Amino acid sequence: MASTDQRIPRNRISPPGAGLDAARMPGHWLPARLGKRVLRPGGVELTRWMPDALGVDPQDRVVELAAGLGATARLTLTRRPAAYTAVDRDAAAVAALSALTAPGPTEVRAVRADATDTGLPDGDATVVYGEAMLTMQPEPAKRRVVREARRLLDDATGRYAIHEMCLLPDGLDPALADRITADLRGALHVGTRPLTPAAWSELLASEGFTVTAHRTAPMALLEPRRLIDDEGLVPALGIAGRALRDPAALRRLLHMRRVFRRHSTHLGAISLLAVPTPTRA
Ligand SMILES: C[S@@+](CC[C@H](N)C(=O)[O-])C[C@H]1O[C@@H](n2cnc3c(N)ncnc32)[C@H](O)[C@@H]1O
């Protein structure tokens, strides 16, 4: 059973997004409220690539930043790391994460904290990763999260991975990038700011990481084909059924999907793997 550091009593916790107005709530919680569990832009394809690339094994001490509903946590736990700590700032997400169980002897914890300041010890983790969370932070906060990941990681054995939205291609006209960002903000109601692949690499490099691999995928989060691939046919039908019975949620989802489609040439998903850059003596 997971231990939890969050201090909100369980009986006062609702599922993420419950009770919020579908027209105004943060875009990522709307599909979650309808039952969607895979909330990453690159779907299961990048979600599976990332733990493989990180090579999580039974010696690893893993920290997941913004673990959300724990979909990737479950994949990670099948690799039986020595320890797994989920961090999220949302009380309802931490309540869900605190119910995680490990198939092996992994020490599992859920901590309610901001990813910029987790309160976890320096250099104690061998693996840190975060998905679908940096994109929604303004630039200074993106930088603080990456810096926190670097602080948490062991210098010699550490690996860091992210899975985010990206703008394509490198060198995209800044005016078009601004337009896409504004449209995303209007649809998702969070300060979404994706970067190009080169800009994501530069961000990691400037905070002490060397990017060793990356992979991109189409941004197809709300496409029927991706919904089935990510969730399975029956859950996907359940999500569609709940959306059809909730006109406000359906209108909002269709608006989000229109924006993703309008910019599909320039929007993608990216996962990057990085290691601490050795510091010169
Ligand atoms: C779109 S969900 C992604 C969740 C999960 N990583 C996934 O891919 O399914 C966003 C999650 O990030 C969390 N989050 C966003 N910014 C955060 C931050 N600065 N610190 C901690 N959690 C954060 C939110 O509370 C939410 O649970």
TrEMBL record:
GO MF annotation terms: methyltransferase activity
Keywords: Methyltransferase, Transferase
Region annotated Disordered, chain positions: 1-24
Residue intervals of the Methyltransferase domain: 62-154
A biological-process GO annotation: methylation
SUPFAM superfamilies: S-adenosyl-L-methionine-dependent methyltransferases
Coiled coil region boundaries: none
Name of a matching Pfam family: Methyltransf_25
Protein name: Methyltransferase domain-containing protein
Species the sequence originates in: Streptomyces sp. R39
